[in-house]
C-alpha cells in the first residue's frame, strides 16, 4: 500500500494497459505510486506488456506479461487475464524512464538488446502444436533522443511505428519472423531515423505442447 492506496497487481496493470484504460507512463515518470507501464506491444491477438517497478531492495526491475485476445471478438476491447512471462533486475545502471541527457552510449548507436528470451505460449495459430508456439521476446534499449520505434517486417514496404514511453521497448517475433528495427524521432512530416538499424530473426522451431495438456 502506498499513500494509503492499495497497489494493483501487475497482472491487472498489464491487462488494463492492453485495453487502453491505463496509459503507458510519461517519460520521466517515477515509481512513487508503484509499477509503471514502459511499453505495450500487440501482434495480432497477442499482447505483451513491459512493466517497471522498484523492488524492496531498492533496485529497479522489469517484468513482461502477455495475453491472448479472443480472435472472434468480444465486448469492447477486453483482454483476458495476463500471464507473467519473466523478468529480473534492470542492470544498465540508470533509470530507463528518465535517462541522463549525456548518456552518449545510447544516442548514436543501434538499439541494444537488454533481454532476449524464448517462451512456449499459446498463440492459437494452426502452425503451432495444439496452438502452442515458441515465441521470441526481445527487450531493447533505444537511443535517448528517439521517441518512436519503427519495425519493418520481411517484405514490408514501410516500417510500422509506435510511440515510446521509456528507453525500453518490446519486439515480439513469431516462428519464421524476420524484422528490421530502427529507432526514430517523430516530426511534422513523418519520422527521422535515429542511429543504426538492427535485424532480428526467429527461425521456425518444432514446438511441442506442454506435457500437462
Description:
The protein has 213 residues and is mainly beta. Helices cover 5% and strands 43% of the residues. The chain contains one helix and eleven strands. The chain has one helix spanning 10-19; strands spanning 36-43, 46-54, 60-68, 83-89, 112-122, 132-141, 148-153, 160-163, 168-173, 177-186, 191-202. Strands 1-2-3-4 form a four-stranded antiparallel β-sheet, covered by helices on one side. Strand 10 and strand 11 (191-202) form a beta hairpin. The longest helix is centred in the first third of the chain and has 10 residues, at 10-19. The radius of gyration is 17 Å and the shape is globular. It starts with 9 loop residues before the first helix and ends in an 11-residue tail after the last strand. The relative contact order is 0.16. Mean pLDDT is 82; it is low at 1-5.
Question: What class do helices, strands and sheet pairing give?
Answer: mainly beta
Query: Averaged pLDDT, please?
Result: 82
Tell me the radius of gyration: 17 Å
Q: Count of helices?
A: 1
Low-confidence stretches: 1-5
CA-to-CA gap between the ends? Answer: 38 Å
Strand content: 35-45%
Query: In order across it, which strands form the biggest sheet?
Result: 1-2-3-4
Q: Categorize the overall geometry.
A: globular
Helix content bin: under 10%
- Element order: H for helix, E for strand: HEEEEEEEEEEE
Largest beta-sheet details = 4 strands, antiparallel
State the oligomer: single chain
Report the count of strand segments.
Answer: 11
Amino acid at each position: 500500500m502506498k499513500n494509503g492506496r492499495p497497489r494493483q497487481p501487475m497482472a491487472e496493470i498489464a491487462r488494463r494497459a492492453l485495453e487502453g484504460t491505463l496509459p503507458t507512463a510519461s517519460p520521466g515518470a517515477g515509481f512513487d505510486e508503484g509499477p509503471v507501464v514502459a511499453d505495450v506491444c500487440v501482434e495480432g491477438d497477442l499482447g505483451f506488456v513491459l512493466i517497471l517497478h522498484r523492488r524492496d531492495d531498492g533496485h529497479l526491475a522489469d517484468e513482461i506479461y502477455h495475453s491472448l485476445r479472443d480472435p472472434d471478438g468480444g465486448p469492447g476491447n477486453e483482454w483476458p487475464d495476463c500471464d507473467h512471462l519473466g523478468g529480473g533486475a534492470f542492470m544498465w545502471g540508470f533509470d530507463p524512464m528518465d535517462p541522463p541527457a549525456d548518456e552518449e552510449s545510447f544516442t548514436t548507436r543501434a538499439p541494444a538488446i537488454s533481454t532476449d528470451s524464448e517462451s512456449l505460449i499459446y498463440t492459437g495459430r494452426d502452425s503451432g502444436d495444439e496452438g502452442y508456439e515458441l515465441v521470441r521476446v526481445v527487450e531493447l534499449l533505444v537511443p535517448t533522443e528517439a521517441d518512436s520505434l519503427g519495425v519493418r517486417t520481411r517484405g514490408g514496404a514501410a516500417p510500422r511505428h509506435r510511440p515510446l514511453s521509456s528507453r525500453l521497448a518490446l519486439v515480439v517475433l513469431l516462428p519464421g519472423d524476420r524484422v528490421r528495427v530502427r529507432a526514430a524521432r517523430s516530426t511534422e512530416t513523418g519520422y527521422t531515423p535515429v542511429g543504426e538499424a538492427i535485424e532480428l530473426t526467429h527461425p521456425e522451431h518444432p514446438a511441442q505442447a506442454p506435457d500437462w495438456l
